[in-house]
Amino acid sequence: MTAYSFLSLALLVPAGFAVAACSDCGARMVSVAQEKARESRDLVDAPGTLRMHAPAARFFRTNGDVRRFKATVGFDPAIYTLKRKWGPTHIAATKMGFKVYADGRLVADAGIMRPGDGTKTIEADVSGARMIALESVDGGYWLGTPQLLALWQDVRFEGKDGVVAVEEDTSGAETPQFGILTPPDDPEPRLNGTWTYGVRPGKPILHRIAATGKAPLALSVVGALPKGLAFDARSRLLTGSIAERGDHKVVFAASNACGRATRTLTIRVGDTLCLTPPMGWNSWNAYECKVSDKIVRETAAAFVEKGLADHGWTYVNIDGGWQAFEKQVARNEDGTIRPNERFPDMKALGDHLHSFGFKFGIYSSPGPRTCTRQEGSYGHEAQDVETWVAWGVDFIKYDWCFYRDILKKETEGRKPTDADRIKPFRQLYDELLRQPRDLVYSFCGGGVSLKGAEANGSNLQRIWGDLKDGWGCVLAAARSAARHRLNAHPGFWIDPDMLVVGRVCTGVLGDHDTLLTPNEQYAHISMWAILNAPLLIACQMNVIDDFTVKLLVNPEVIDVDQDVAEAPGEIVVSTNDDLVFAKKLCDGSTAICAVNLCPFKRRVTVNFKDAGLSGTVRLRDLWRRKDIGTFQDTFTVELPPHAPLFVRCCK
Ligand code: GLA
Questions:
Q1: Does the beta carbon of 370 sit less than 6 angstroms from any atom of ligand 1?
Q2: Quick one: which of 303, 308, 436, 558 has the fewest CB in 10 Å?
Q3: Catalytic entry in 24, 310, 466, 561
Q4: Contact, 462 vs 23, CB < 8 A?
Q5: Residue 326 burial (CB < 10 Å; 0-12/13-18/19+)?
Q6: Which position among 399, 438, 561, 578 bears the catalytic label?
Q7: Which helix (H) or strand (E) holds 432?
Q8: How far apart are CA 211 and CA 189, in angstroms?
Q9: For the segment 229-240, what is each residue's pLDDT rounded down to a tens digit?
Q10: Rounded distance, CA 512 to CA 503, Å?
């Protein structure tokens, strides 16, 4: 414990914060002059200041003799030095909040502030409180910086006769973290992952059957396979093609010494791909532009070795960073695109991924340059699609980036319409439709309407700037995805961006372990699952630790993500303290995800009626894979800060 008679120390509290590097994330532009003016309005770091990252909280114990709390709050002007790296746009988009709690009750909230907003006084009646918590809230965009951002100045705990001594509780007792929750795989056979596969007539099918259970585990097809398909039990790969439109069912069995399980795969031959949210990996938030052939191969190897392949993780997607860099030769004389020296043979890489049954994803822009100023597909759309197809590509993320310059020229003197924005995405879609293989199509940026995207080939629609490993960013992206939930359906998924867990590489911090706490990572995965979000892991798979693996191989959590019978989860409660999502599952049960938004542990009560349930409800804890019991009307549980309760409710 540290004693304060006023407060003076500047302890650094672990935290999260970063930049939206998205080309089109809607951040406000601010001139340098404006920025200077703003800087002068923010707090000066004077002695006697409490400095914190956001999000973070600090806890103070009292003898019950404090009556009033008072402080002046604002941004640390150090934020302005970040402009060297990221420019003022992202600084302007950064938001922060300040809250005070007395014995777990919110007693003051300064609201959300931006750099340049100056200072605010925050004060509250805290009479009799034994624990006062000061929270700096990450308001949505964060800056990936080890610098301090939130300042509390002139902090005063006042009693009857003036300033009162308080003790800071740095024991961590208020902020426990979940450890590994997912139990080891069951010894009994279990068939995992996705069980609906969309493919166009006559186009190649490649599907790895995901199964777990004690070895040796034998996989087989029950009955006859549809004409045109073959199943290799050793590699677990289903291959071939089906010409005839409609649903084709294949029953798979997995058996071992502990038992036998069967599950039916529906192959829907028609015009729609991506019938369930894709599960896989994306290189961007893991490596940014450092991605290479070696890294991609190591990722595929980790998918197999760490058991992710047995849980349905399939896509291995290279994001920005594979094309030639600015000063290199970007295309051959005939115009074909050249990968940079880190990718010696893309076709061989595609074959390698396919040999495990994985899907190969790639990234480009309709503009002349991608967001990292590498070669885009502008003017070479047909040629690039053919090249990717020759490499065996199965997934393309098409990112607006420098198409903004083209749009500007094309729409000079008028306001761009949705049709103007959709045009380059549609152009690529027409090329994709001409190909002998299917490519899942992911739209990124450009500000196209969801309806427009859906009608013009998008399978995944980004609705958010770049997700960085900050709690405020994760919450804001989840809320945004929930707002758009009714637009999602098989073939078209709302994409709040990749999973920022494990070791990542984001923004000014470079390589680092995710800044999300363990609890926040559980909440992140739970929210993405209940929202039917694409699950694309942005983590350095070659150094993945056990904690992160276990976050990703929980079959009951994955089942919620892949359960697409009804619309994605809806936010049914949203208060200062709680965020609760609910979603109907195809077996008639309901998934509930309740997140403790407070910066300390507390008892959280879930009212079943908020999730459309009444009477007696049986609960199963999805992370721990354990039945909890039967409850009437409500369920109360102690949740650590920012941790979720993720349950399946059956009548
Ligand atoms: C944009 C996208 C990111 C990533 C990078 C690559 O910022 O939003 O997801 O693709 O470009 O440059």
A1: yes
A2: 436
A3: 466
A4: no
A5: exposed
A6: 399
A7: helix 418-433
A8: 7
A9: 999 999 999 999
A10: 6
C-alpha radius of gyration, the chain, whole number: 26
Q: Which of 399, 443, 463, 498 to mutate to test the pocket of ligand 1 (most atoms within 8 A of CB)?
A: 399
If you write DSSP's letter for every residue of 369-384 in order, what string do you get?
A: B-TTS-B--TT-HHHH
**Measured between alpha carbons, how far is 137 from 121 in angstroms, rounded to an integer?**
16
Maximum alpha-carbon separation in the chain: 87
Give the integer Cα–Cα distance in Å for 247 and 362: 29
- Reported as a pLDDT band with limits 50, 70 and 90, residue 142 is low
Q: What is the mean pLDDT of residues 623-627?
A: 98
Question: How far lies 631's CA from each of 278, 430, 585, 594, 620, in Å?
Answer: 35, 53, 19, 16, 11
Q: Which atom of ligand 1 is nearest to the CA of 466?
A: 8
**CA 49 to ligand 1 center in whole angstroms:** 37
Whether 319 is in the pocket of ligand 1, judged by its Cβ within 6 Å, is: yes
Q: Amino acid identity of 148?
A: L
Cβ(283) – ligand 1 distance below 6 Å? no
How confident is the model over 488-519, as pLDDT tens digits? Answer: 999 999 999 999 999 999 877 789 999 999 99
Q: Would you say how long the chain is, in residues? A: 651
**445 HSE (CA, 13 A, CB side):** 27
- Compute, in angstroms, the gap from residue 21 CA to the centroid of ligand 1: 7
Find all residues with CB under 8 Å of 348, minimum gap 6, and list them. Answer: none
- DSSP bridge pairs for 594: 580, 645
- The CB of 466 under 6 Å from ligand 1? The reply is yes
Collapsing DSSP to helix, strand or coil, 220 comes out as strand
Task: Over range 362-385, report the average pLDDT.
Answer: 97
Residue 17's pLDDT band (boundaries 50, 70, 90)?
A: very low
Dist. CA 76–CA 116, nearest whole Å: 10
Among left, alpha and beta (phi > 0; psi -120 to 50; other), residue 67 is: alpha
The residue behind tokens 């109360």 is 636
399 catalytically annotated: yes
> Can you tell me which atom of ligand 1 is nearest the CA of 363?
10
Assign 364 a pLDDT band (cuts: 50, 70, 90): very high
pLDDT of residue 86: 57
What is the rounded distance in angstroms from the CA atom of residue 142 to the CA atom of residue 96? 9
- Asked, as a colleague might, if the bond just before 47 is cis with ω within 30 of 0, I would say no
SS (H, E, C) 454-484: HHCCCCEEECCCCCCCCHHHHHHHHHHHHHC
Q: Where are the beta strands (DSSP E) in 514-569?
A: 535-537
Segment 266-272 mean pLDDT = 98
pTM value is: 0.93
CB-CB neighbours of 344 under 10 Å? 12
Asked if the model's pLDDT at residue 317 lies above 70, the reply is yes
For residue 319, the ligand 1 atom closest to its alpha carbon is 10
Give the pLDDT confidence of 506-563 residue by residue, as tens digits.
Answer: 877 789 999 999 999 999 999 999 999 999 999 999 999 999 999 999 999 999 999 9
Give the pLDDT confidence of 408-425 residue by residue, as tens digits: 999 999 999 999 999 999
Asked about 438 being catalytic, the answer comes back as no
- What's the pLDDT at 11? 26
3-class DSSP state of 52: strand
Q: DSSP secondary structure string, 419-430? A: HHHHHHHHHHHH
What is the 214 CA–ligand 1 centroid distance (Å)? Answer: 40
A 10 A CB-CB count for 142 gives 32
Question: Which atom number of ligand 1 is nearest to the Cα of residue 371?
Answer: 12
Query: What would the 3-class secondary structure string for 468-535 be?
Result: CCCHHHHHHHHHHHHHCHHHCECCEEEECCCECCCEEEEHHHEEEECCCCHHHHHHHHHHHHHCCCCE
